[in-house]
Amino acid sequence: MKSRYVHTNIIAKDWKRISLFYQRVFGCKPIAPQRDLRGEWLDKMTGIENAHIVGEHLSVPGYDENLPTLEIFSYDNMESSNEKLINGIGLAHLAFEVDDVSAVLKKIKEEGGGQLGEMVKAEYPNNMIATFVYAKDVEGNIIELQSWEKKRE
Fold first, then answer.
1. What are the backbone angles phi and psi of residue 95, rounded to the nearest 5°?
2. Residue 112 located in a structural domain
3. What's the structural domain count of the chain?
4. Distance (Å, rounded) from C-alpha 32 to C-alpha 19?
5. SS3 95
């Protein structure tokens, strides 16, 4: 059986705002066309009567320009009782490896996101040191920032 990872979907209150956040902070790029989806097939697939989805896919840095993607969508009618917790059941966060965790965290805050917990350094096998911090995008989705370096001896 062959398989490959294709995308991660984020349902946003304002898909354009979230899309711009990921473009500005991480350099993600929109992949045409923008989506405007509706029809009997979508109603059947989602189980939502008269479902209507708008949004777009974003390429993610470090990979082919078409896959995998972040799929940023908004529905006309959305459930808003979805508190995002780092220890909540289900998908917890998106992770990005970056050169400078502090600089990217600063950019996240400048773009309207926030920080969750403290920035930490941890020693790993093979003389590696990792820097980690959890952040939040403009709608509260959790993002892990990480960088790796060889321990200086």
1. -120, 135
2. yes
3. 2
4. 13
5. strand
Range of 121's domain? 94-150
pTM for this predicted structure:
0.88
Indicate the DSSP class of residue 86.
T
pLDDT tens readout for residues 129-143 = 999 999 999 999 999
Contacts of 22 (CB under 8 A, 6+ apart): 28, 58, 70, 72, 137
Instruction: Tell me how far apart the alpha carbons of residues 80 and 113 are, in angstroms, rounded to a whole number.
Output: 19
Same domain, 117 and 57: no
Residues 142 and 90: beta-carbon distance below 8 Å: no
Tokens of 109: 């805050």
Neighbours of 57 (CB within 10 A): 25
